[in-house]
Amino acid sequence: ASGQSSFDRVIAGDGRIEPRDEMPDDYRKSLIRQISQHAHSEIIGMQPEGNWITRAPSLHRKAILMAKVQDEAGHGLYLYSAAETLGASREDMMQALLAGKARYSSIFNYPTPTWADIGAIGWLVDGAAICNQVPLCRASYGPYARAMIRICKEESFHQRQGFEILLTLSRGTPAQHELAQEAVNRWYAPSLMMFGPPDADSPNSAKSMAWKIKRFSNDELRQRFVDMLVPQAQALGLTLPDPDLRWNAERGHYDFGELDWSEFKAVLAGQGQCNVQRVEHRRRAHTEGAWVREAAMAHAAKKAARQQQSARGAA
Amino acid sequence: ASGQSSFDRVIAGDGRIEPRDEMPDDYRKSLIRQISQHAHSEIIGMQPEGNWITRAPSLHRKAILMAKVQDEAGHGLYLYSAAETLGASREDMMQALLAGKARYSSIFNYPTPTWADIGAIGWLVDGAAICNQVPLCRASYGPYARAMIRICKEESFHQRQGFEILLTLSRGTPAQHELAQEAVNRWYAPSLMMFGPPDADSPNSAKSMAWKIKRFSNDELRQRFVDMLVPQAQALGLTLPDPDLRWNAERGHYDFGELDWSEFKAVLAGQGQCNVQRVEHRRRAHTEGAWVREAAMAHAAKKAARQQQSARGAA
Amino acid sequence: MADMAEYLLWLGDDALVSAQRLGEWITNAPELEEDVALGNIGLDQLGQARALLSYAGELLGRNEDELAYFRDDVDFRCTHLVSLPRGDFADAVVRLLLVGAYSEQLYAALTTSADERLAGIAAKAIKEVRYHVEHAAGWAVRLGDGTDESHRRMQDALNRAWPYLDELFDPHPLTDHLDGIAVDPATLKEPALQRITAVLDEATLTVPATQRVAGGGRDGRPSEHLGPMLAVMQVLARAHPGASW
Amino acid sequence: MADMAEYLLWLGDDALVSAQRLGEWITNAPELEEDVALGNIGLDQLGQARALLSYAGELLGRNEDELAYFRDDVDFRCTHLVSLPRGDFADAVVRLLLVGAYSEQLYAALTTSADERLAGIAAKAIKEVRYHVEHAAGWAVRLGDGTDESHRRMQDALNRAWPYLDELFDPHPLTDHLDGIAVDPATLKEPALQRITAVLDEATLTVPATQRVAGGGRDGRPSEHLGPMLAVMQVLARAHPGASW
Fold it and tell me: Which residues, by range, are in coiled-coil regions (chains C, D) (predicted)?
């Protein structure tokens, strides 16, 4: 009971919960779910962009893209570590992902048919991720908050790089401009859906906010994102594909049209264009790498045995 | 002794030796060596051309190339069968090839960096093969002679197709013309070397000729080939890369320059550009297919067992 | 006419991309006999593609090679199933079975198309496709009911391919616009599935219970695998625009 | 100046093609840590390639992207070893070890090149390459002296790569023309082989006794694998000639 009340006190005082602190079981489970989903999203998110590493149209862009995809692997690693501080095992989390039982951000089930998608992912998807994640840098669980601080720094680089790709395309040849516009047309609505369903339909949000894991509602974040995008789209010379998008002086925000949640739900339910491909890709890489991981363990065991033996010999 | 003399009689009378006929051990061994080398050459020869199936520049050419490479697999199969009639096992021959112990025509250790190589292989390599093989249609060993008749028919299609590819390139854009000339520059000398070393250095030839397996010497065939090429090269509008090539009215043949046999010997000794790659490719395909072959055998055994059981049940 | 051309692209692109993948198998098959067989099947598919794309090209004022070599992936109209990466031999067998069973129904129905030229193409194709399905079915049974490893590989391959099957049968407004000429893909599903499940039964394989994927190949949303495949297929033709070969 | 540019292409193309192959590993590594590590190494190599190709480009009046994207395979100057198909992780480790051991000697020697800019590039590269060799050596030992399967795979990969090693050390008239600036590759062979064999010993692997292949990459006779690789690498840039990215 004293643990429970200390937890409440820390939360109320906007303090940080650390791994060894007591915490309610629900809090722990909810965090494991959220952090592992976030980790999986980083890992699966490597694929739609990895798709263009071999075809990046300049060496400069190739280097940036390789670094970005590599950053995402790094983010996945921090986040798995953060989840491990809560008692989850990386192996279990990975197995859940490979078995198709774990969630990851649905946005990565959309394909990247053109190079402009790399720009759109950076600008829109990473942009939405940042809006979502900046508040998480103040999440009540310490390891998660610290991981998010590092991740957000890198993500904002990524977003700027995405913006630059689109800007170059938008100001390039007519064919390049069209590629950019067409990618924005495809990624705009899905990126708005990254904030989750409307507040009215979001059952987990209330608790997360009470626990100070989440700080703003889905709809608040979505509005913030749209308000941020509109001037940036103007700077890009690209149009956001929403006829209902307009400034509302009264609200001091942009109004925007209804989103088609039925598609979101279909993708979430596994029927997106790439759901199967993404999980299958990960499964194949994991399976093909099994002999390497086994060998590394076998070698470590051999080495330890040898050291033990030579220590014994010396004694 | 009566077998030996009947063999001699058949040979002397330009007749055919058939699988069940008695034959000298040397004759049998020499034929197995020659036929299996020929079979291996067909199989390995699929690779330099197979290299362009996915990139063939028109659907018409892609279809012709696929059919050609497939024909070569077929030729390999006939020839392995012909060798099997002499008591060799396909499995043993294949293992010798995979182990790098069996010979195949050195010409296939040259690479095909450009599409024009597909034309040059057809015109020059298949052309040389035909010169070599047409006399083999009268070889004294029946199954070999019959396989060669079928193979030669198809090879002459292939040669014509190669000629057509080069003709189209030669009459095409300047870049295409240059590709064609450059490929002919690379394949001309190696194709002349396909007839084997000069007669003076060819130890096996005399016996093969006495047995009526071989009917013309290496140098005779090479001369015949050069005489055939010169007018065809003129028709193609391409130059054969030999400054010493000129008509000799006295001989009634074209004179041609010395060949650089040191390169030939290096390639033969395994140091060509693609020796390692060709055998490794075959080894990989064979290894990756092992589970399929095992399953086919296991299924056949199961099926046979079931049939036997149901036959027993019926009895 | 634009609708007709579009429909021909559906069929022609499926055939072309299938043939291109089979082309990757040549020199890589598990036995020489299979190099020959896969080559034959690829050639049949390529022949179908050429007939269909030539016809489409006449309607569009382009020839077969312009359509094959100078369209980008988003301009192709093939389903996702045919562009999946080569995979192992079990993947090849499973795809040949699934695509073949669909094509068998498709071409059978198209032999009575009101468009005579398409009916003629279908009449030739149906004979070829029947053989392809037979060939795939033979392997499916041998491998499904072979060793433990071959059974596992076949089931894995089936699980991988299955989510892409439904796209082949998706209804589409285009076929409504071509009444009597084209076939509503949805009508092909039941007989094709019957054929497939009969083979899987004999092969001791289980029909997967997996979710379908979205597809979109017919509407210019190709799989991510198509772009890299076309990069290789088109590289030489595009390096020499306007050249003859 | 043409000689200098040619020499820079030797080094730059080796680095670029190595980086391109490593790029194929990202999202496919046996563990996430290795996705990161291979990505790092690929980025280092890409950085080396860019420095070298930019320099070559200045001498030739072309920029790094024109050299990377608008040359055909026969205009590349990389050795065959770097363009071999991706293979399995053992192939990646072996090639990284072999190419790394060569590069380690090469860049160490070039730090004293009479060409200051090249010496500067080498001074940066040598630090990176030392790490790459360490990384490869660590894996070679773990896998060579790991399980029976990993030992077999490593030895197989070593046998596959070994025939291509000699080309790296082939003497060539070009380096004679660049006395004091370039390094005679033959002089690098002994120390590189020492490094390699020390690792193989610890890894319980056997130096293969296989024949070398002819090579020819320095003289415009690229491996057959380079063309298809460049088809993919260059496809987008070539589809938009003159565009900026």
Answer: none
What would the DSSP string read from start to end of A56-105?
-SSHHHHHHHHHHHHHHHHHHHHHHHHHHTTT--HHHHHHHHHTT-S---
Distance, CA of C55 to CA of C7 (rounded, Å) = 11
- Name beta bridge partners: B246: B255
Domain ranges of chain C: 2-207+220-239
Give the model confidence (pLDDT) of B137-176 as tens digits: 988 999 999 999 999 999 999 999 999 999 999 999 999 9
- Can you tell me the mean pLDDT for A105-111? 94
What is the predicted pLDDT for the residue at C214? Answer: 87
pLDDT at A201 over 90: no
Q: How far apart are the first and last CA of chain A?
A: 51
Burial (CB < 10 A; 0-12, 13-18, 19+), residue A52, is: buried
Whether chain B lies against chain C with 3 or more Cβ pairs closer than 8 A is yes
Could you tell me which of C94, C101, C125, C90 has the C-alpha nearest to residue C194?
C101
Q: Within an 8 Å CB–CB cutoff, is residue B58 touching chain C?
A: yes
Residues of B in contact with D160 (CB under 8 A): 276, 280
Q: Which residue of D has its CA nearest to C231?
A: D232
Q: Does C228 score more than 60 pLDDT?
A: yes
Chains B and A are in contact, defined as 3 or more C-beta pairs closer than 8 angstroms: no
Q: Cα separation of A35 and B216, whole Å?
A: 79
Distance CA C159, CA C147 (A): 18
Nearest CA to A171 out of A180, A184, A159 is that of A180
CB B149 within 8 A of CB B83: no
Report the alpha-carbon angle D88-A292-A94, nearest 5: 105
The two tokens of residue C85 are 């990466």
Burial of A213: CB neighbours in 10 Å, binned 0-12, 13-18, 19+ = buried
- For residue A254, CA distances in Å to A245, A248, C42 come to 7, 5, 55
Q: Are D34 and A69 in contact (CB under 8 A)?
A: no
User: Is residue D229 a contact partner of residue D17, using CB atoms and an 8 Å limit?
Assistant: yes
Fill in the amino acid letter for D80: H
Cβ pairs bridging C and D (under 8 Å):
17
Mean pLDDT for A148-173 is 95
- Identify the CATH number of the domain defined by range C2-207+220-239: 1.20.1260.10
Whether the CB of B176 is below 8 Å from some CB of chain C: the reply is yes
pLDDT tens digit sequence for D177-216: 999 999 999 999 999 999 999 999 999 999 998 888 889 9
B interface test, pick of C83, C128, C155, C245 with most B CB neighbours within 10 Å: C245
Strands A246-248 and A253-255: antiparallel
Nearest chain A residue to D150 by CA distance is A295
Task: Count other Cβ atoms within 10 Å, centred on residue D181.
Answer: 16
Taking the C-alpha atoms of residue C103 and residue C123, their distance in angstroms, rounded to an integer, is: 12
- Asked whether residue B3 carries a pLDDT value surpassing 60, the answer given is no
Contact D95, D84 (CB under 8 A): yes
